[in-house]
Amino acid sequence: LRNAESQGIPIYIARSNSSTQIASALASVIELRRGPEDKALEEARDGIEQVVGGQSDEVELAPQNAYVRKLQHELVERANLSSRSSGHEPFRRVQIYR
Q1: Which CATH architecture has domain 36-97?
Q2: Stated pTM of the model
């Protein structure tokens, strides 16, 4: 552990050997490695599920840059839904609807 620490290698600790603690530690590591694009695409997937599941007629996502919005529009298209961008930079966002 000292060698890893001296070399700047991250060390993650689970409080116990239980599956819950290990899952929690892994979730923390995975969350740290996710970038803003991954989070934005997950938000788009959640929005798609809300529209497809009938929970909402339209879902407005958080503002993103043009590249991320393009990826979000592609996800929506693959789900056979419609989308549009609205607002003005830097607050332009994707809206998902049927």
Answers
A1: 2-Layer Sandwich (3.30)
A2: 0.68
